[in-house]
Amino acid sequence: MKKKKKEKRKKKKEKENGKREKKKRKEKRKKNRNKNKDEKDDKEEKKEYQKHEKYDQEEKEEN
């Protein structure tokens, strides 16, 4: 009887640990995705800024 209860508790603990680890991995992926998205947005903003910068420079040269 005691052995069964012990095994049951052990299985329950392992299951909880698995859920916890799965949640950690999920959070890590989510952070990574957000980080990559932010970097991509920054690059796009930089490109956009450079376009405007170039256009302004051309305008100054014409005048």
Automatic annotation (TrEMBL):
<feature type="compositionally biased region" description="Basic and acidic residues">
    <location>
        <begin position="35"/>
        <end position="63"/>
    </location>
</feature>
<feature type="compositionally biased region" description="Basic residues">
    <location>
        <begin position="20"/>
        <end position="34"/>
    </location>
</feature>
<protein>
    <submittedName>
        <fullName>F-BAR domain-containing protein</fullName>
    </submittedName>
</protein>
<feature type="compositionally biased region" description="Basic residues">
    <location>
        <begin position="1"/>
        <end position="13"/>
    </location>
</feature>
<feature type="region of interest" description="Disordered">
    <location>
        <begin position="1"/>
        <end position="63"/>
    </location>
</feature>
